[in-house]
């Protein structure tokens, strides 16, 4: 069953086109991710979803409510966490939560079950000012505040930005638990590695969706075999691989370079010889499964070359 | 690379705010031309330490030498010898590319004719010549970050501090950014960098990981992975930081 | 109702936890009142004068005596001829010279009129005006008390404020002005800042997405400031009375009701400002420029409106404080009832309605 349906939406601010002709749908009880760097249009898109902005063209419906006509109904039924954790810095953890419960006409007690797993982690600090919390705790509190009225849909705009990797993992575990308990979640993130934790993702760049798929589907669409290459001097290695005649793309990924060749199959022996000639030691070339980030880079490159045409 | 005299020396650095110990007895050294990764969980005390290293705040106790100057007594000299860039603070949106360069260069008392030639070189290298008179507001984020980095090292500091320089940047630009970091390091500039992208931790020569105000471990990425029996730096980080108290 | 209460409680937390807001809220009225009262006071005290008595008879001596014993003036010197006048003014100590014509008492007796010339150093025009009128008043007083059926052809312009401000106290003039200024500034400034702060924080997004109606958000944000500003008005009235002896001749209830009306007006202005700004700094700047300066300059608080060029006079008519000050003066000094100030009140009500309507229209249920 489709929960969100968006058809051909565009939105521009004065001259700049923030979103251009986007269509997607989110199924009920899905954890749906919009993955893309800053400036891809994620925040604008989320403000359209939460009825805070009106699209210039196209239609969006949430649970068959139209974002323009039925904005009041939608607002009652969604939980929204804007980009910067919008908490009152000068209110305590508990006061923040109480306030957000009150404006949605409920109480902490009434929906405690829903937030319990998250709230117990910050409950020891409930008398602390929200402004004094660490990034990870702010994020958890903001999530509790967005959840307190038992929304059917959670809209989370970059909930993990600027948060350390441990808190990010914990946060995604919470999101998966919430999805399992029946809430539909739409989330955006600039961290490509988080894409694999979603049910489906839309990869965004420059106001457009480059691809919509399951994380596995995105990876399976990677056009070519990918190789991880390493040697003892990575800095030189990269410069030399770029000049290798069969090189299509080479990008640094952690301790390896990720490499695709122009020919269908990489001739490992030839490449090894080439590198040995350049006095590289400790050369290792092995096939590797692409990550979402590899796919994202491939899609970006593909788009920019097709744009150039 | 590590044969030289260290460019940053931190010995038993303690920084307290009232009863709260933000930096609990930190000791480490950073060498010229090194790319030093400074990782840590939120609230682990990274920002506090960077502020002290940049001469913006004084240690409660301990010795901190940056570029040969004492953070306790010569913080002004430290400031002229370092570069700084963060995701949040970079360039003036309402000034043009050239005006931004000239403003920052002016702060560091670079003579006008040198500013002029270096600006031209820089714009050429970044491929931004056509955009020299565009407002920063109107150029894409990726360019902004690259330009901000170039400006941070414009006065050829001995050390550059990068506080989450690649946050929210697209994956291609992020890599181009790291190319620039390597290039600066090759020129002998020490790069002190924080990041939440764990793959970027792999790009550093050495990495320190802070947990609860202490340095939980400090080594090359490879040694850290072996020591903690981890496949990548993210796992190392998870293992060290999971047990934190906040 | 529970929702509303929750909102107000939250708003009070913000106010009570922010030392700056508290300082502005309660420090500013007191400090400004005292500052104006003691420092920038336009009260006259120990002004140095010189007297050129060409007559030297009993009447001129009596009048001189009365002027000098008033406490407002202090004798610098007696002059002996007209040429000295310019000299003493040039030295700068003397702000006023009183000249009695020859045979003063004689002329008064026979012709029923005698001339006193009052020369004031008008390089400080306000003070000159003031001391001239003080002197005039003292002479008039003498004439009245003597019950002499003589008129002195002086330029006597009994100003309204002197009629109702018999002791010629400056404080009576500025307390209403301060009240207008503080109420409009605090109400408008603080509400606009507190609304804009929510925009900056991003919490406004969450509030908009919640089931709260815009009107609920506005009322929730504004109510605490109505209460606090009202409290401020009371402080000013009480302080004015205790420290400066400013009376409340008329009905206190009417006074407070008019204050409340003015507060609501100022708050709706604040909301209007918040709808057109996105940062606290801008809100603060606009409040200062649009509210504070006109309140000081164009409300008749410091500079008399009647002396202004017609363009500014017209501009004064649309300044809410201009009407409020008239109302307050009437109630506090003259003790008049609503009957005499219904027109001004009606204007304020009209303005309030316009501002509320405008800000309700402008308050967006969406972003951008």
Describe the model:
The complex is a heterotrimer of chains A (309), B (246) and C (368). Chain A has helices at residues 42-49, 71-77, 93-103, 112-122, 135-147, 165-180, 215-220, 234-242, 268-277, 292-308; strands spanning 2-13, 16-27, 31-35, 57-62, 65-66, 78-81, 153-156, 184-189, 200-205, 208-213, 226-230, 247-253, 256-261, 284-288. Chain A has 309 residues and is an alpha/beta fold. Chain A has a six-stranded mixed sheet with strand order 6-7-8-3-9-10, sandwiched between helices. The two termini of chain A are 39 Å apart. Chain B has a single domain, classed as 3-Layer(aba) Sandwich (Rossmann fold), CATH 3.40.50.300. Helices cover 36% and strands 25% of the residues of chain B. Chain B contains nine helices and ten strands. Chain B has helices at 46-53, 75-81, 97-107, 112-126, 141-152, 171-186, 198-201, 221-227, 233-241, and strands at residues 8-17, 20-30, 35-40, 61-66, 69-70, 82-86, 159-163, 190-194, 206-211, 214-219. In chain B, helix 3 (97-107) crosses helix 4 (112-126) and helix 5 runs parallel beside helix 6 (171-186). Chain B is globular, with a radius of gyration of 18 Å. The two termini of chain B are 36 Å apart. A four-stranded mixed sheet of chain C has the order 2-1-3-4, with helices on both faces. The model of chain C is unreliable at 150-168 (pLDDT under 50). The A-B interface holds A 36-40, 125, 134-137, 161-169, 190-193, 205, 235, 238, 251-255, 293, 296-297, 300-301 and B 40-44, 140-142, 164, 167-173, 175, 178-179, 182, 186, 196-199, 202-203, 221-222, 232-234, 237-238, 241-242, 244, 246.
* Helix-strand pattern of chain B: EEEHEEHEHHHEHEHEEHH
What strand order characterises the main sheet of chain A? Answer: 6-7-8-3-9-10
Let me know the average pLDDT of chain A. Answer: 90
Output the CATH homologous superfamily of the largest domain in chain A. P-loop containing nucleotide triphosphate hydrolases
Q: How are the strands of the biggest sheet of chain B laid out side by side?
A: 6-7-8-3-9-10
| CATH architecture designation of the largest domain in chain A | 3-Layer(aba) Sandwich
Cα gyration radius of chain A (Å): 23 Å
How many domain regions of chain A? 2
CATH class of chain B: Alpha Beta
Residue windows where pLDDT falls under 50 for at least 5 positions of chain A: none
Return the CATH topology of the largest domain in chain A: Rossmann fold
CATH superfamily grouping of chain B: P-loop containing nucleotide triphosphate hydrolases
Order of helices and strands of chain A: EEEHEEHEHHHEHEEEHEHEEHEH
Average pLDDT rating of chain B: 88
Spans of chain B of at least 5 consecutive residues whose pLDDT stays below 50 are: none
How much helical structure, as a percent, in the residues of chain B? 25-40%
């Amino acid at each position: 069953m489709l929960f969100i349906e968006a058809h051909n939406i565009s939105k521009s601010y004065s001259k700049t086109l923030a979103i251009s002709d986007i269509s997607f749908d989110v199924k009920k009880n899905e954890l749906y991710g919009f993955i893309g760097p800053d400036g891809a249009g994620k925040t604008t898109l989320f403000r359209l979803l939460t009825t805070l902005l009106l699209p210039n063209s196209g239609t969006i419906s949430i649970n068959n409510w139209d974002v323009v006509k039925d904005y009041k109904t939608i607002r009652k039924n969604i939980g929204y966490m804007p980009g910067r954790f919008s908490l009152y810095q000068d209110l305590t953890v508990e006061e923040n939560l109480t306030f957000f419960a009150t404006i949605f006409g409920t109480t902490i007690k009434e929906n405690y079950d829903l937030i319990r797993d998250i709230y117990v982690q910050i409950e020891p600090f409930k008398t602390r000012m929200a402004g004094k919390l660490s990034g990870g705790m702010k994020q958890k509190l903001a999530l509790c505040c967005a959840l307190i009225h038992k929304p059917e849909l959670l809209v989370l705009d970059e909930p993990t930005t600027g948060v350390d990797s441990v808190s990010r993992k914990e946060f995604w575990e919470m999101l998966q638990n919430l999805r399992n308990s029946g809430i539909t979640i739409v989330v955006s993130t600039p961290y490509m590695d988080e894409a694999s934790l979603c049910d489906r993702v839309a990869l965004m760049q420059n106001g457009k969706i480059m691809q919509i798929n399951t994380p596995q589907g995105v990876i399976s669409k990677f056009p070519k075999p990918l190789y991880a290459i390493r040697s003892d001097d990575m800095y030189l290695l990269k410069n030399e691989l770029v000049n290798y005649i069969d090189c299509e793309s080479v990008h640094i990924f952690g301790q390896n370079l990720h490499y695709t060749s122009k020919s269908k199959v990489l001739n490992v022996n030839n490449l090894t010889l080439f590198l040995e000639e350049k006095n590289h030691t400790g050369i290792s070339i092995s096939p590797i499964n692409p990550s979402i980030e590899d796919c994202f880079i491939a899609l970006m490159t593909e788009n920019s070359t097709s744009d150039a045409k | 690379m590590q044969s030289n005299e260290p460019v940053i020396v931190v010995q038993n650095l303690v920084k307290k705010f009232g009863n709260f110990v933000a930096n609990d007895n930190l000791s480490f050294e950073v060498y010229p031309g090194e790319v030093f990764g400074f990782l840590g969980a939120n609230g682990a005390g990274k920002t506090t330490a960077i502020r002290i290293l940049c001469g913006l705040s004084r240690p409660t106790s301990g010795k901190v030498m940056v570029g040969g100057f004492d953070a306790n007594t010569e913080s002004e000299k430290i400031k002229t010898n370092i570069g700084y860039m963060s995701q949040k603070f970079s360039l003036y949106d309402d000034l043009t590319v050239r005006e931004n360069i000239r403003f920052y260069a002016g702060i560091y008392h670079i003579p006008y004719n040198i500013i002029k030639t270096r600006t031209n070189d820089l714009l050429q290298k970044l491929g931004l010549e056509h955009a020299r008179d565009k407002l920063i507001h109107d150029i894409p984020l990726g360019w902004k970050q690259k330009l901000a980095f170039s400006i941070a090292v414009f006065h050829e500091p001995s050390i550059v501090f990068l506080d989450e320089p690649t946050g929210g940047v697209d994956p291609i630009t992020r890599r181009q950014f790291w190319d620039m970091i390597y290039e600066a390091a090759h020129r002998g500039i020490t790069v002190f960098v924080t990041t939440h992208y764990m793959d970027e931790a792999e790009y550093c020569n050495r990495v320190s990981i802070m947990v609860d105000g202490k340095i939980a471990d400090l080594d090359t990425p490879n040694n850290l992975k072996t020591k903690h029996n981890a496949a990548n730096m993210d796992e190392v980080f998870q293992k060290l930081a999971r047990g934190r108290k906040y | 109702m529970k929702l509303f209460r929750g909102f107000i409680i939250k708003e009070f937390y913000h106010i009570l936890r922010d030392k700056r807001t508290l300082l502005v809220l309660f420090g500013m009225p007191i400090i400004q009142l005292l500052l104006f009262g003691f420092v920038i006071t336009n009260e006259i005290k120990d002004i140095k004068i010189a007297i050129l008595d060409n007559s030297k008879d009993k009447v001129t001596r009596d009048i001189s005596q009365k002027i000098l014993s008033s406490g407002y003036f202090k004798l610098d010197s007696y002059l002996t001829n007209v040429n000295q006048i310019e000299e003493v003014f040039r030295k700068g100590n003397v702000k006023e010279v009183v000249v009695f014509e020859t045979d003063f008492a004689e002329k008064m007796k026979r012709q029923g009129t005698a001339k006193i010339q009052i020369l004031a150093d008008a390089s400080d025009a306000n003070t000159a005006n003031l001391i001239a009128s003080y002197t005039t008043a003292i002479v008039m007083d003498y004439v009245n008390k003597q019950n002499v059926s003589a008129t002195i052809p002086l330029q006597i312009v009994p100003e309204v404020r002197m009629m109702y401000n018999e002791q010629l106290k400056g404080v009576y003039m500025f307390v209403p002005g301060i009240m207008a200024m503080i109420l409009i500034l605090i109400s408008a400034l603080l509400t606009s800042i507190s609304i804009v702060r929510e925009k900056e924080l991003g919490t406004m997004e969450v509030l908009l997405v919640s089931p709260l109606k815009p009107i609920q958000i506005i009322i929730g944000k504004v109510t605490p400031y109505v209460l606090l500003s009202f409290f401020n008005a009371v402080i000013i009235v009480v302080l004015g009375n205790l420290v400066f002896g400013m009376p409340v001749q008329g009905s206190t209830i009417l006074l407070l009701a008019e204050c409340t009306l003015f507060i609501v007006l100022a708050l709706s202005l604040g909301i209007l400002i918040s709808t057109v700004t996105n940062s606290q700094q801008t809100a603060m700047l606009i409040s200062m420029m649009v509210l504070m300066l006109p309140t000081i300059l164009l409300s008749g608080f410091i500079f008399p409106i009647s002396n202004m060029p017609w363009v500014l006079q017209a501009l004064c008519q649309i300044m809410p404080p201009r009407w409020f000050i008239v109302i307050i003066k009437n109630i506090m000094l003259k003790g008049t009832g609503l009957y005499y100030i219904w027109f001004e009140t009606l204007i304020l009500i009209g303005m309030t309605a316009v501002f509320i309507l405008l800000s309700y229209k402008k308050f967006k249920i969406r972003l951008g």
